[in-house]
Amino acid sequence: VHYVNCEYIWDLAHTQRVEPAKKAAQVIHKKLLGCLQSQLGLDTERRMKKLPLMLLSVSMAESFKDFDADSSIRKVLEMCCFMENHLAKTLAEFELKLEKEVLEPLNKLSEEDLPEILKNKKQFAKLTMDWHNALNKWVTHSVHFVVSCGSFSLLHTVDMVIHSLQDQYSADLYHFATKEEAYANYFIRLLELQAEHHKNSHDFLERNITDVSPVCVTTDSQKNNSRGKVYGEPLLTHLYDSGREIAVPIQECVHMLLHTGMREEGLFRLAAAASVVKRLKSSLDGGVMNHSEFTDPHAVAGALKSYLRELPEPLMTFELYNDWFQAAGKKELTDKLEQFKIVLKKLPSENYNNLRYLVQFLSCLSEQQAVNRMSPSNIAIVLGPNLLWPHMEGEAALLDMASASSVQVVAVVEPLIKYSSSLFPEGTVPPSMFCLLVFRGGVLGVL
Hints:
- By secondary structure, the protein is mainly α.
- Helices cover 74% and strands 0% of the residues.
- It has 21 helices and no strands.
- Helix 1 runs parallel beside helix 6 (149-217) and helix 16 crosses helix 18.
- The longest helix has 72 residues, at 72-143.
- This is SH3-domain binding protein 1.
- One of its GO terms (cellular component) is cytosol.
- GO terms for molecular function: GTPase activator activity.
- Keywords: Cytoplasm, GTPase activation, Phosphoprotein.
């Protein structure tokens, strides 16, 4: 009797937490399911389709097509459309992680692990009662000097089963005790995932709202207020004078190319009339742009190349010239991308923002390579030497653009374009990037 009473005390002390844990896991699992906006069991892309944020993005995409290309409302809706789409993807990724790392473990805990412990507890209690009944019969017979072999046999059998179940039950409770902190971590993980999701969404919005705001204020009069020329000026000076984050030639040329040049064969490779390129450069320098006046995408691409080439310092900087080549020299792709990320972090913020903006556009351009013949490699060949060159003076610098080092530049720029989504995880794209979806056969079809 003593060991049963001790076992009962031990059982009571350790099972006090099992039932509340099961109840907490069940209730929180149910409430969390109610918080989800997507369907369980789907991958990220399929989850996105039914999210309210995605439906909002689709509505914005349908709406901005009704405006002319120069409308401020259209430009803002285009950017908002992209941003809502990205937020929907972020939410879908968050809910997928939540399902795998919190919901599934909680469900297993409440429906399998803890019920098994409670089931063993119930069996243990029943057998303990049977043991007491058998013991009472045996004691009664003993008092009357009538010892029943059947009663003694039953007592012995129940005693053996109790010992076996006691061991199993003790092991279950010990396992629960050792895993209690791990179970508590399910709820901590919930908070961590929420914090990560809200931080990513906040950071993304904070970065991109700065791209939306200039759309509303870039009237002709404000453009004329930009001080000084653009071509040949240091990047930081131009950005400071114009109050922008993205250089005017890069932003304006990308905007025009998204509308007119994505399917143009040999973009950045074929030259345009020098007089047209010169006139476009003058317009960009003067801050007065009429997009409808410049319909030749090769002239626009030429003006963009010219801006990059005429920068006093390359967009990818003199200081990091050797760092880029060392990163590109890594044999393993994983190592190469990690080294690229390290070098990218070394860039000044203004260089990084403009390089990211440009490279993500070039990545989008390369997706049309079946039509425009501009693969990441081809783009890197024609544009790479305008992004990175050594710190040399005069003719030496020009000669270097045709030397072996320009071939090395291709090895740097090509993977930047090819793996832009990994190297620039922020998700920022040019404000008119969603126009590209129209060229692919309609926003709705792509989404």
